[in-house]
Predict the structure.
Amino acid sequence: MIKGFVFDLDGVLVFTDHFHYLSWKAIADEEGIEFNEQINNQLRGVSRKDSLEIILRKASKTYTEDEKDALCEKKNNIYKTYLDTMSEKDVDPDTIETLKQLKAQGYKIALGSSSKNAKYILNKVGLTPYFDAISDGVGLVHSKPDPEVFLKASDMLKINPKELVVVEDAEAGINAANAGKFISVGIGEASKYEKTQISIERFSDLLKVAKANSGIVIEDLCKEYTPGVKAVKDVNLVINDKEFLVLVGPSGCGKSTILRMIAGLEEISGGRIYIGGKLINDVEPKDRNIAMVFQNYALFPNMTVAQNIGFCLKISKVLREKDYKCPTSPKKLRNLWYKVQYPFVKKLKYRHLKKEEIDEKVKSVAEILGLTQYLDRKPGQLSGGQRQRVALGRAIIRNPEVFLFDEPLSNLDAKMRATMRTEITKLHNRLQTTFIYVTHDQVEAMTMGTKIVVLKDGVVQQYDTPANIYNRPANKFVAGFIGTPQMNFIDAKYLDSQLTIGSKTIDLTKEFLANQDVESLGENNVCVGIRPRSVKVMDQEGYDEKYAFEGTVNVSEQLGDEVLLYLTVEGKDGDFTIAGNPKKQYKIGDKVKFSINPNEIHLFNPVTEKTLYISK
């Protein structure tokens, strides 16, 4: 989860590169040393002392340390004369507005600059109030590409590096951010650097990075198994943090393929996947901080429930806990502290979890899932629902950033599926973590998801809330796929606010037509969609003779609380399904009169099959 941003100063917030160039050029000219733009480019993101060392490579004499210190001081004095000319006008308004929005969204903001003049510059341009911490070159032991300046900012904010975004314009800064395990964002020249994790064109693009905070962003995702045959085509999704997203569609629509690409089990043919703002295309599955629950449970039959749940903890390692305190002097001790505190120069030691630690976590998860009394049993001694809960427990104990479910209820009977639907929904509410769930069952999609993606032939048909997908389907496919019983479709003619179905003509209300793009039809032909529960039979309240039709019963399905009638209706090929009166018995061949609600019908373009509804 992204909790804050650490910014480099020069080239990101302000632009003083030219001041550096002029200052070093003055020093080089005075010393008779060649200096040009090519040499100046090597100084980007490098400390003052290291910059001087690069310049002195062209010198004809050798300089003592005292002489070098004097030249650095002289360069700084020249540089400061240029800085004195700066004001708030030197900051792009886009930068200020972006910082304001990031602060308003609750992110911590820090500076991570090797410049000893960083605080002075921030004050001159009026940016100081936006920063919660300023890590500058004062007291810095190592310059970039060492991550020390960013790690100082992390310590000052008291935020883990993995939860901080570092924004840099130089390759050295990107290398430093990556070495410190930060999320590196490149702007300017760094946006083209191959080791940059996230590239942005404008400073305001950071708001997009923030929007993807702890969520999943999928851009132009494709999967091509054979040349020219795409199983997934240009999928674009933004899955917010803590969302329960359901991927639904018929077999072969690409939903499981998308899930497996997110998990890293399937190679990506094109596009990008970000988790928590970090590009994960080339990240190993084990390093993506995700957990996956499979359709076939994938439990170890020779292990108990407790051993299955705790297996991932048994094979994983954690950092040894030690309380390090940074000595203030001398430099060598501080240098040693950084080597020990952060595993970039000297590798830290890791250990396996103790049995007592694993048992404690397993019992906690078992209590959540109601498996406490089954911990000593093996999978073969459990029901299908209990085995699926064990698979859930094995995922939960890892405390992942994202849970992936690949049709986990397909092997269960109808009653157990209904129970597990409720259990998984409760689990999502309790864990408050991102869930991505694949199913072909639209009932599961509608009852479980906070957002639904409907897929067909690898293409996203609609991405919306369950209510919007049901009430405002984007096209005929979505309308027919979502909803049980399925929506009825019947060809009709539209002319002058009237709809003709078979030999029956009905008037459409002004309120209904105000939200319909009937002018796009071109011709009078239109496809009408009517849900079975949007009709009323003759002896029910709400029946209206003005919108009445008649049909002949072909099949009657008594479901207890309702009865479904499959009718032959004029103008409709195949059965027209309606919900009848559950208190009445219907026989094959009976004539049934029913009326439709004109405000609840759906109109579709018969050529494109897109809805005529105008979203407002």
Q: What stands out?
A: The first helix runs from residue 17 to 31. The mean pLDDT is 87. The first strand starts at residue 4 and ends at 7. The radius of gyration is 32 Å.
